[in-house]
């Protein structure tokens, strides 16, 4: 009897991905390909513009007249739209970690197209990211069935998530008022802490807004509800805050240091917020949860390895000051993560 119940539980746990999860997965993968490729196209455009005008690294804006650079920007916008749509179909615990794949695509394309060296350990980092992403995809929870934006609002106003949101907002204000004036220029965790904490709330709001738009396009108008516009206001506020303090972090510290630390904190807090608000783990057994965490750690390991080996190939330490590639005005510290490059653009 116990064996039969265990077998039934195992069968239900691994019944496969839902159609919504598959749509979210395809959109997230498409987003990674578009965004990863956009870095290369924009860099080619910057090189071409720099050859006939003042480089971007020297304060020039000739790249604004370069069609190749605009092609890269359009490609990135398409990728961000796909990423936004992915949150409407799949849980954040599935979509967010897949952002690391854009780094792999950028690194591989830079090696092939731009002739930038990819260290052997960088290849290992790519493999680790792929293995970790595959593990998370195969064990991700099914998307919660939601009928209206009011239902998302009810989830967001439950005591557990309200407590999380209150702690996040309090911590952000303490960092901004108390710590940034004294430690912002010397401690990397101050700026990144603000970006990561606010980012976890922004992703939850993006997901809520995405669900509202998905339901609206399917025939159930959600734009008439004030909750939809409340989520839109939260998205706007959070993104502007992230953009401000992420740019401060990137301007003050080395990108090769900022990128992996921000990715770890942002993704970890986003998954935590999703687990609290949408109760992703309530629909999973302990085996799936542990497997997802192992996949996440694997992605983190691959991300750190990619950034460290990029420094090795550039012949510089991640603790050295930032410098600009004299040829095209790009920082030679590695390719930024999806969320960073998007906000900077």
Automatic annotation (TrEMBL):
It is found in: Cell membrane; Early endosome; Membrane. It comes from the Eukaryota. GO terms for cellular component: early endosome; plasma membrane. The keyword Ribosomal protein does not apply. Keywords: Cell membrane, Endosome, Ion transport, Magnesium, Membrane, Transmembrane, Transmembrane helix, Transport. Pfam families: Mg_trans_NIPA (PF05653). Acts as a Mg(2+) transporter. Can also transport other divalent cations such as Fe(2+), Sr(2+), Ba(2+), Mn(2+) and Co(2+) but to a much less extent than Mg(2+). PANTHER family: MAGNESIUM TRANSPORTER-RELATED (PTHR12570:SF91), PTHR12570. This is Probable magnesium transporter. It comes from Aquilegia coerulea.
């Amino acid at each position: 009897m116990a064996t039969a119940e265990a077998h039934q539980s195992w069968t239900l746990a691994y019944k496969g991905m839902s159609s919504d999860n598959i749509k979210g997965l395809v959109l997230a993968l498409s987003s990674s390909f578009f965004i990863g490729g956009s870095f290369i196209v924009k860099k080619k455009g910057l090189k071409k513009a720099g050859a006939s005008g003042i480089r971007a690294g020297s304060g020039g804006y000739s790249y604004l007249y370069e069609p190749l650079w605009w092609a890269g920007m359009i490609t990135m916008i398409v990728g961000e739209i796909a990423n936004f749509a992915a949150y409407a179909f799949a849980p954040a615990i599935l979509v967010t970690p897949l952002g690391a794949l854009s780094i792999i695509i950028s690194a591989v394309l830079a090696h092939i197209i731009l002739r930038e060296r990819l260290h052997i350990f960088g290849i290992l980092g790519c493999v680790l990211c792929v293995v970790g992403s595959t593990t998370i995809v195969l064990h991700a929870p099914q998307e919660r069935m939601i009928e209206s934006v009011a239902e998302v609002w009810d989830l967001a106003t439950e005591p557990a998530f309200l407590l999380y949101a209150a702690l996040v907002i309090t911590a952000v204000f303490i960092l901004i008022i108390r710590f940034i004036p004294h430690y912002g220029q010397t401690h990397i965790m101050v700026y990144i802490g603000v970006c990561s904490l606010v980012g976890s709330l922004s992703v939850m709001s993006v997901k809520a807004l995405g669900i509202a738009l998905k339901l609206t396009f399917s025939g159930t108008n959600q734009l008439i509800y004030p909750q939809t516009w409340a989520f839109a206001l939260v998205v706007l506020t959070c993104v502007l805050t992230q953009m401000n303090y992420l740019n401060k972090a990137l301007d003050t510290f080395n990108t090769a240091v900022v990128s992996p630390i921000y990715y770890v904190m942002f993704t970890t807090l986003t998954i935590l917020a999703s687990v609290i608000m949408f109760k992703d783990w309530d629909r999973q057994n302990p085996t799936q949860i542990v497997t997802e965490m192992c996949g996440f750690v694997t992605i983190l390991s691959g991300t750190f390895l990619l950034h460290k080996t990029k420094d090795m190939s550039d012949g510089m330490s991640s603790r050295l000051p930032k410098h600009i590639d004299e040829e095209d005005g790009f920082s030679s510290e590695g390719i930024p993560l999806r969320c960073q490059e998007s906000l900077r653009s």
